[in-house]
Amino acid sequence: xxxxxxxxxxxxxxxxxxxxxxxxxxxxxxxxxxxxxxxxxxxxxxxxxxxxxxxxxxxxxxxxxxxxxxxxxxxxxxxxxxxxxxxxxxxxxxxxxxxxxxxxxxxxxxxxxxxxxxxxxxxxxxxxxxxxxxxxxxxxxxxxxxxxxxxxxxxxxxxxxxxxxxxxxxxxxxxxxxxxxxxxxxxxxxxxxxxxxxxxxxxxxxxxxxxxxxxxxxxxx
Length: 221
Fold this sequence. Notes:
The protein is of the alpha+beta class. It has three domains: about 1-40 and about 190-220; about 55-95, no CATH class; about 100-185, no CATH class. Helices cover about 45% and strands about 20% of the residues. Helix 1 runs antiparallel to helix 5. It starts with a helix and ends with a helix.
């Protein structure tokens, strides 16, 4: 019985010292987290200060915001990005090219990604319903490799839009848990983060105060 009480006293001491060690960094993490989510990320980045301007097209010509010409898998391709976000792909003679098919998507992955020849499956997605790990409103091919990596090929441009490894997807889930937004994993300014972060901060603050009380009680005895 006496030995058990001694061990309990030791455990209590270790608990107190561990509390002292982690109290300050936990408080700093909570305070910094509350500060980071106190304002929407768009406001922090200054995006709300930008005055939106639309590029004006030349009369009689299509509204174009960007034109790029390059060699794509052995042939000259011109990509025209319009102001509405759509992309047109043309060959060297100016003839429009069809949307990228599954074979071309596979070739793009083989040439651009290490291990891209080990394809397990392909799946097409529309711009209105992109996969969660892509989160871009573009039509795409999801090329799944043997190791579980998802490579997204833009069906309009034929370019690699994103690469999502298994680790990236796990990290993305953890990020969603951290900001308490598993649906979109983008909204760090939500009521759950603010409320629970504030409550956790108050709890840690009270715990830190109790550490002082416990220490003063031991000194007086």
